[in-house]
Amino acid sequence: MGRHIESVSGGVFVDRGGRVGGNVGTVNGAIGLVGTEVAGDVKTVNGDVTIGAGSRVRGGLTIEKPSSNWFPVTINRRSPRVIIGPDAVVEGPLEFKREVTLYVHTSARTGAITGATAIPYDTPRAPQE
Q1: Quick one: three-class SS letters along the chain?
Q2: What is the mean pLDDT of the chain?
Q3: Which of 76, 81, 110, 113 has the most CB atoms in a 10 Å sphere around its CB?
Q4: 115 pLDDT tier (thresholds 50, 70, 90)
């Protein structure tokens, strides 16, 4: 069981049965979790986040606002997509400090959401934009 997973420009993907003992974070890469347990928080600035089917995050989920002193960070023109999948649980708060598109499956459970409006869905996959 790993402590933390952190990346600046690369994506992070943890597949079924994965366990992270601490936090998962990126600056400029996507985060994807499937059937994974995270003991801490999930944080990113400029990446898409999928808390996929059957995943459990014991902490919260934060999307930070890009700051000008983070160099070199190429700002994505499109808002990050955040997907909370079927039977996924985020126990802590979901805090969005920049604009995102947030999809939450009707079977998922989350803490309080600030900074975004959840779009519910009940299909196996989130809607495409």
Answers
A1: CECCEEECCCCEEECCCCEECCCEEECCCCEEECCCEECCCEEECCCCEEECCCCEECCCEEECCCCCCCCCCCCCCCCCEEEECCCCEECCCEEECCCCEEEEECCCEECCEECCCEEEECCCCCCCC
A2: 91
A3: 110
A4: very high
What pLDDT was estimated at residue 76? 53
Residue type, 72: P
Q: How far is CA 19 from the centre of its chain?
A: 15
Q: How far apart are CA 83 and CA 16, in angstroms?
A: 17
pLDDT at 70: 52
Q: In one letter, which amino acid is 28?
A: N
User: What span, in angstroms and rounded, lies between the C-alpha atoms of 72 and 80?
Assistant: 18
Q: What is the CA radius of gyration of the chain?
A: 13
Is 57 exposed, middle or buried (CB count within 10 Å of its CB: 0-12, 13-18, 19+)? Answer: buried
* C-beta atoms surrounding 13 within 10 Å: 16
